[in-house]
Write a structure and sequence with these properties.
With 296 residues, this protein is an alpha+beta fold. It folds into two domains: 94 residues, Homeodomain-like (Arc Repressor Mutant, subunit A, Orthogonal Bundle); 165 residues, Multidrug-efflux Transporter 1 Regulator Bmrr, Chain A, CATH 3.20.80.10. Helices cover 39% and strands 20% of the residues. The protein contains ten helices and eight strands. An eight-stranded antiparallel sheet has the order 1-6-8-7-3-4-2-5. Helix 2 packs across helix 3 and helix 4 packs antiparallel against helix 5.
Amino acid sequence: MEYEAMVQSVLDEIDRRITENIRADELARAQNYSTYHFCRVFMALTGTPVMVYVTRRKLAYALYDLSRGGKVIDAAMDYGFETHAGFTKAFKKCYGCPPSFYRLHVMAGPPERATIESVKQFRHGGIKMQVQIREIAPFIIIGYASRHRMPGVGRNPHVPAFWTESDLDYEAALSTLHNSYVKSHHCEISLCLDIDEEHERFTYMLGVGVDEADHAVPQRPGTYLHNMQGGLYAIFTTPLVQEHYAQSIKDTWKEILEHWLPESKYEYDNTRVEYEYYDERDHGRPMQMDIYVPVK
């Protein structure tokens, strides 16, 4: 119990000093332990090296600031990363993706008090998701696009299920597209494009997949065409739900980015585009859909 109380005290101390330059030897000295012994005990009880945890905790606080409209460079300075590049590098090492990708898909809340158990749970994830790793062939999307500013799109602070908040009548618009491309496999695609890190802007697009059989059909006025590269993807299927469908999509994104991607052997491939895939399972009750994340 002595060691557990000591480590919990350290977790609380890290949160109190989260914007300071925290060093392992100082934490050890405050607990009257040698640095070597302190680091061994911390690792044994939490499963995480102490300075890895400190960096991860700083990133969690920085994410919360970003989700409330803060700028990356300000978050980097506030939590001791010195440069935008240093913050991005630390973030990618911890979460397996750049901060812009995370911000688009997950709304970070205020960090809850850390406990030994919560630190251990971070490494093991929560809900068990259906995931496949598969090569996807290139394909075409035709649909509607709009430019937005991070971290929010309309009233919705993140992209998943953005169509529930949009002013565009997507249901009618997509039905028109499906009626135009009748030979193509029925599916809708939602994705983010042209992410501008410096000015914190991105393009949101929702459209339909168009097969070669419909290649000769004239493109409708006011629509955009995007060529998806294809390649290796991790494919996640949301749980079957009768209601709260949009929330289930957001929860799945959160699980992917907070647990699966940081702990998997794969890394997010930012040379390609992630997307949400909706087909016949999206119509009626219960509902589910797939999330495609490009990996390498």
